[in-house]
Amino acid sequence: MTSKSAAAAARATVYGYPRQGHNRELKKAIEGYWKGRVTADALRTTAAELRRNTWRQLADAGVHEVPTGDFSYYDHVLDTTVMVGAIPERHRDAVDADALDGYFAMARGTQDVAPLEMTKWFDTNYHYLVPELGPDTVFTANTVKQVAELTEALALGLTARPVLVGPVTYLLLAKPAPGAPAGFEPLTLLDRLLPVYAEVLADLRAAGAEWAQLDEPALVQDRTPAELNAAERAYRDLGALTDRPKLLVASYFDRLGDALPVLAKAPVEGLALDFTEAAAANLEALAAAGGLPGKRLVAGVVNGRNIWINDLQKSLSTLGTLLGLADRVDVAASCSLLHVPLDAAAERDVDPQILRWLAFAKQKTAEIVTLAKGLAQGTDAVTGELSANRADLASRAGSPITNDPAVRARAAAVTDARRSQPYAERAAAQRAGLGLPLLPTTTIGSFPQTAELRVARADLRTGRIDTAGYEERIRTEIQEVVSFQEKTGIDVLVHGEPERNDMVQYFAEQLTGYLATQHGWVQSYGTRYVRPPVLAGDISRPEPMTVRWTTYAQSLTDRPVKGMLTGPVTMLAWSFVRDDQPLGDTARQVALALRDEVNDLETAGTSVIQVDEPALRETLPLRAADRPAYLAWATEAFRLTTSGVRPDTQIHTHMCYAEFGDIVQAIDDLDADVISLEAARSHMQVARELASHGYPREAGPGVYDIHSPRVPSAEEAAGLLRTGLKAIPAERLWVNPDCGLKTRGWPETRASLENLVAAARTVRGELPAT
Q1: What's the whole-model pTM score?
Q2: Is 707 noted as a catalytic residue in this protein?
Q3: pLDDT in tens, 34-55
Q4: Using CA atoms, how far apart are residues 51 and 43, in angstroms rounded to an integer?
């Protein structure tokens, strides 16, 4: 096909769409089901309505081919585990008894059965459920969900493309099941898994699928020759099938690298590539591979992970370059739109000028359609859209919001900041000042956000109560949280964060340069949705943000109360960050604002200050070559935030739900006095990783999995502590949950923390006398 005919054939598509509905109907239905207020049939009806609404909206917007199978009750990787029948043995009875309840048992656990481990989906804040596979795993196809959703879309008269997690990525994301032999690699199960994918593809073809998309984002990471050979074998075998739809292999989040020629040569009909994060690299590699003659190329030229408007002219230029490299060029976002909110037009409180700079899922869909039209019909067909887009881009570039000379001057004057005293001297001063026992207990920061708190927050917004009434509710909540911790015997207390709706949003609302949304919900995991703030301009802190409530809590107790802050990297990672300057420059601005807060907390008498950085690993670049530069500015930003305090002020940090082995040196470089980390689901793996590195400071690997409703017994927590002691000596081991408790209810929180303290006392009593 010539370049002209390739352009004329250009179509618009997307890989996936937000699942929750405009009013988070899915969240409410699922949580209602868990509580017994919503029947299974009612939940399924809500889900079907949401899917139909999404497909109709996409089709009405001009999307030529809608995705199916991307919808999920909890997580698309968990859906894949069900599709291939890789149910862990401990969950089989629950799944056999009731498929829906068994599905949620794998996701959340039950009182008797632990859930699957959860970790971050590549370098995003979306969490997936980690498959557990072993040499005895038997795969069996279960295509009920995939076929049913395709059938629903086709019944609406739409062109639909099923979207599946690809077999190589699925295996590379998996972990060895408990009891698997040491050194077992799930990828060795590929030959066993491929026939199941063949059966799934055959069923989809029989149901009417012309195309099927297999997502292989794991191939944008550094891969060994053996892993690349596995990818080559997988798509050689799947491509050789005769009873299948056409295959579109999709990659996103980075450059495809050495995997691109492997997939380009595979007997599949199309590739989807990211031309936002890695435009130049993928263009160069595609040209070097000789293009995709006779194949379809889906070009992800609209950023699917951030909320800024697209530069349409630049994207059309990229698309024009791609013509001639493939038989057909279609237009898409760089990845699923799952990672952005639904509709910017719903934001009534954002300045109309700034609103023109924002593109959520609905607006990104319109951009994709415009670009497909411009590519197919020429720029004259989209003259009006291009003109408006140029004006909006110029408005943002010239806005005073994006350029504060005072902030920029302060950031430019920064040199790398480090605490002047070595850790050993600081630790001695802190032990003398704090007087804590061995195995000190604490929590990560937040306590349950009760219904009364949510009602009070809503009443304040609507004017049913005034600020004084709301603050009285906050004081009462802090009193209750502090009293509970004292009675339970926790050593280092927190105020519970009742005034905070979200750990990033709370600070963003008090910093200049940030914008808050009212409806910008994005799925983090399961039914947990967050509203990432928009980091639109230069950052500064007009006044203290946390000192008032921290000092109030400290006035209620003689035990130390931690000051609680969100760190600079996490403030970036869990926001929609500006894309018009290097991330390191933005991180430095945020760090300086937080440094002012740390110093004010110390001045107010706070002796323990926690600066959370759960996103440090999440934001790690997917390619090793890109990591040193990132870790340099990320660790510098943390040290800049925390290095201005006295040696007797104890600095904590916290990280959760990520693979920490890759960044132990960076954790060391933060120079925090204490770090708490998620460890319960992974059975203290991080403690072993810290020990292997020779980590010299104090650490609290979690003994209570807060993302499950189950209450761990004191014996279970004590067992985890004993495992932790094999890696970390008692004088440096803390006892804490995996993460904050805001999503849990009070009954389970109360019981779990009482068991945690009891476990600490038990194990403390087993330590040799000193």
Answers
A1: 0.89
A2: yes
A3: 999 999 999 999 999 999 999 9
A4: 13
